[in-house]
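Practice problem: predict the structure.
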Amino acid sequence: MKPLKPIPDWEDHEKPTLPGSASMPWHPPHRRAAYAAVAVLVAITGGLGNALISANLPWIQGQMGLQPAEANWLVAAYMMVNVTTNLLVFKFRQEYGIRLFAELGLGVYAALAVLHLAVGGLATTVLVRAASGFAAAACTTLGTLYMLQALPRKYVGNLLVVGMGLQQLAVPLAWLLSPGLLDLGEWHNLYLFEAGLALCAFAAVVILKLPPGIQIKAFERLDFVTFALLAPALAMLVIVLGQGFLHWWFDTPWLGGLLAAATLLALAAFLVEHHRRNPLLQLRWLMGPTMLRFIIGAFLLRFLTSEQSYGVVTMMRTLGMGPDQMAPLFAVILLGVLVGIAAGALTFGPKAVMPQLMASIVLLGSAAFLDQHRTSMDRPMDFALSQFLVAVGSGMFMGPLMLMGLRRAMERGLDHIVSFIVVLSLTQTFGGLAGSALLASYQLHREQVHSSQLVARLDPADPVVAQRLRVQQQAYAGLVTDPQQRQAQAVSALAQATRREANVRAFNDVFALSGWIAMGFLSWLLLEVTLRNPSVKKAMRPALAGPPSK
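Answer:
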């Protein structure tokens, strides 16, 4: 397409890979180091705000006097806007330039982070979190683009892995920083820290600008029609996945209404795209068998990380653990993510794609099976080995996914890049949301099953149960003088212990389910690789052709 501005006289090694990306001129070592530092700052800034809210959601819920379903809107609002923004981010960079994209994206984010300090109600806080999701979408891309300037062009693949992995550092850092921030005051300190970090990132991208790229006419009128249809559909799906297990799926009619409306809007958007000459989403390509396999695989990889983000974290919260007790575990997780990113970057290459993906699945599945026999006596550091494995696997798989998808998109042309970026973003967002929603629903179901089984065994005539009740009554002897009240307190304490044990058993079932999903995924991937092997194809050809005719 015709450039909107004159193209500088770049040498071959300096030219941007694509319109919308930065050129890659020579930089002195100190400037390359500065680009790497800004990449880390910007990428962490984009994810840390939402990670701080997620890590401290029960505490914020108590401070603001919210119900669990109300508090969940703080995370859902961010996610629903963040995922829809990616539909247009790439084309904005192509048409208006990478520098404007950087300064506008981080400028808006810094302004919204400061605005957080002035709002206190649920409605205004949800609106600001939603707007922050829009601004933070820019940070993910900027972190990668700045990291690509840190080394010469021949290392662009390795740097791509590092840039994509930086955003995963936000969650463990949020858990490590939270105790210190909350010790100094109320939940406003979280927003104060987020605002300061956003202002630092904004100053960094203004002072150290990305090299210019190529600008082309990218937007078409029908792009905005597709966006107007698909954005609310995706937002509704985020709401359904975020609120479904809290309100329960079959007991809340408005969840079904949202799901039906999302389906109709998505179908309308797909109909528009199907008949366009230059569609925003290449549906025929995306619906092909090759890309469908990629979409399912990318979705399942992110789904499997829910064993950590939902399973372990929620189990520890159920057992009374907070950010103070969880911080050492997340220091191990942070180390694991760094190891995973380093391993993915150092072994990056076309031949390493499948081995890296399989290694990630094995690590995620092994961690789940290690955790399937937990007890109520376990504490955060008892999960150190398994969660280190999850962190390594999580840090490793983004590079192979990006390389595999980009290679397939580039084979089809520039107009397929937008489709790939949107699909990758959607699989990672909805894989995480669906993982949490499904595992939470399964855990709740299994808790009810285990609870009914345990309660059925609590016969007061049983000597063991009677002895436990006497021990409980003795514990309250110095506090409660009335024998009947002591008896009621003892029964209540035993019921709480029963519910706790039922929850732990349910979480063990969740870990086992996650492990078996990983094993099924690995088996499917091994079958795919085997069937694509040229020697296997050659051996199977006579069998597929049938017996020779006489």
